[in-house]
Design the sequence.
């Protein structure tokens, strides 16, 4: 009997490219048929055929308090009765700006929009407007959303201009983006020595979640901060994924590095579309209607989305929320390493707060080059074995995983039992 899932996927592919509204969901990296879901509650998901899963994607980070948290749902339902959108300012946006500023004091001013892509695109335009410079710097393996200038891969040499990493990106746009190796302080020093005064900004995932989990070297971040200060380049921490997940104050609090600008998303929308960018007041004052840098959005600061975000941010300020989340995630990581060791599988894992990385390699990688050495086939086999056992991991060897406050000791125990079976089958 054809499952509802199979039917939905076949029909979706006729009207939606790849049958999905975001490529990673298509399972192209791991093979097989993507799972269509119809319900989530706490740490669990149910697919359209009624199968239950323990969820370690959590919508790629937003569902940090678990799916359908009753207080979040209630707040959204109440707000919805007052209309869904005004296209005019509301007190909710001020509340969100105040809360973001309280939790991330480096964000002296903030502007809301509707996605992480919009946030990073807007932050970069603001940095260019503030400095009057065109060049931007990113790091290989970091993802900052899909605006043209960020879909760029490293040119042939350190100083050669970036090349498009996607169809449809003009070479003239990619040319302004320089790409360096993550955790490589020497490459940073060399680049700034040559073109430091031409760099508008450097954008970085302070803890990387988009080439699997990669942890920064403290010295690398300190070097980056010092070089940006010396050359007047704007340091942008892209905390769309790490914000309020790795620490209540984000990676900037965890590593005690103060960026000039920060971008946010995911958790601050609690599952609804919210992005944000902000930072030093002198930089943010460049934005229209005050300054010359234009940036806008019909649903920016949408009252329903902001309500979901405010309630989520309120819940994660509970005492010990982040230490408990980190402890639960560490329990998963340690249990997976022990299960792999018992079966002799080459495997490693680590976590930073509530996000984790799983690697079919001896060591935890610290760069794009290293993560590319991990055994992708083993990951794909492991992914499908876990999926069959009702454990839903990110469908790619190059994505981080996420734990929520709703993940119980029983969830972890069931996950580890499934992992032992998966490792044994390798
Ligand atoms: P969105 O435009 O997808 O809201 O945010 C883009 C973005 C920006 N910066 C960072 C650090 C991010 O992780 C993201 C989005 N993350 C991916 C997960 N790898 C979203 C999943 C997807 O593309 O479907």
Sequence:
């Amino acid at each position: 009997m054809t499952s509802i899932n199979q039917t939905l996927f076949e029909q979706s592919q006729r009207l939606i490219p790849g049958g999905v509204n975001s490529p990673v969901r298509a399972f192209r990296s791991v093979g097989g048929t993507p799972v269509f879901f119809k319900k989530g509650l706490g740490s669990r998901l149910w697919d359209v055929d009624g199968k239950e899963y323990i969820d370690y994607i959590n919508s790629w980070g937003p569902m940090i308090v678990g799916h359908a948290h009753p207080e979040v749902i209630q707040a959204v339902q109440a707000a919805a009765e007052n209309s869904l959108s005004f296209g005019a300012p509301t007190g909710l946006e001020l509340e969100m700006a105040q809360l973001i500023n309280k939790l991330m004091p480096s964000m002296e001013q903030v502007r809301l929009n509707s996605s992480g892509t919009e946030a990073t695109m807007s932050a970069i335009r603001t940095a260019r407007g503030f400095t009057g410079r065109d060049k931007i710097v990113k790091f290989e393996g970091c993802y900052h959303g899909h605006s043209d200038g960020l879909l760029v891969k490293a040119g042939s040499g350190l100083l050669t201009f970036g090349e498009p990493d996607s169809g449809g990106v003009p070479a003239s746009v990619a040319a302004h983006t320089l790409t360096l190796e993550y955790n490589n302080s020497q490459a940073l020093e060399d680049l700034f020595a040559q073109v430091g005064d031409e760099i508008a900004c450097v954008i970085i995932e302070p803890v990387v979640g988009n080439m699997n989990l990669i942890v920064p070297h403290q010295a690398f971040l300190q070097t980056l901060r010092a070089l940006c200060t010396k050359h007047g380049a704007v340091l942008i921490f892209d905390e769309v994924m790490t914000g309020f997940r790795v620490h209540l104050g984000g990676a900037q609090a965890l590593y005690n590095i103060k960026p000039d600008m920060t971008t946010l998303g995911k958790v601050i929308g609690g599952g609804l579309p919210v992005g944000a960018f902000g930072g030093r007041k002198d930089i943010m004052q460049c934005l229209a209607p005050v300054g010359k840098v234009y940036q806008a959005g019909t649903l920016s600061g949408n009252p329903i989305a902001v309500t979901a975000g405010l309630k989520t941010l309120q819940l994660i300020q509970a005492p010990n929320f982040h230490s408990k989340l980190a402890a639960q995630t560490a329990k998963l990581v340690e249990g997976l390493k022990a299960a792999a060791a018992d079966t002799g599988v080459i495997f490693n894992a680590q976590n930073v707060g509530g996000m984790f990385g799983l690697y079919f390699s001896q060591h935890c990688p610290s760069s794009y080059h290293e993560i590319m050495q991990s055994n992708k086939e083993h990951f794909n086999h492991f992914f499908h074995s876990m999926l069959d056992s009702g454990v839903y991991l990110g469908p790619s060897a190059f994505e981080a995983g996420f734990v929520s406050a709703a993940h119980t000791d029983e969830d972890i125990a069931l996950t580890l039992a499934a992992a032992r079976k998966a490792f044994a089958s390798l």
Observations:
- Residues 41 and 67 are 5 Å apart (CA to CA).
- DSSP finds 14 helices and 16 strands in the chain.
